[in-house]
Amino acid sequence: MKSITVFCGSSFGAEEIYREQAFLLGQTLAKQNIQLIYGGADVGLMGAVADGTLSENGKVTGVLPHFLQSNEIAHKNLTELILVETMHERKTKMNDLCDGVIVLPGGYGTLEEFFEMITWAQLGLHKKPIGVLNIDGFYNDLMSLVQNMVDKGFLKQVNRDMLLISENIDDLLEKMRNYEPPTVGKWISKEEV
Prior knowledge:
The chain is α/β, with parallel strands linked by helices and 193 residues long. The protein is built from 8 helices and 7 strands. β1, α1 and β2 form a beta-alpha-beta unit.
């Protein structure tokens, strides 16, 4: 993996461990020569993961819609800042630039980005690993809900198994490196979308 997209909150959350782990993830990516692709902001966990990468002289590409840049939240020290028109264009560009995705704690926006990426993978639109860094058990309840989807017949186990989850950065990155996408048939092709 040469580049990883990180989706995460634009706030720090209630516990200091979220900021600490976001910063450490950024440092770890830089030390492993993995470029960070993220939302381009200098606020919350987004800023922390970028700052962590930059602190180890890593490469950071931010992708930010013009309307958010005008709110003065753009990070000023990135390797590259790509400006786009819409939130959907932002996600598409971030997907195009990366070899994998990591999700940190966040709110509605983070969940929306996460579920779009895993849905695209389920549909066969990409074969990239999607990792959840489950800091301090943040995503335990969500993982229970996903398992309930399997138990109730709304999600296949093979698609549940596409989600890689760990509370440890190095362990998560190792799972992502060893990821084998499912070989089940695709419902649609990329050209049909």
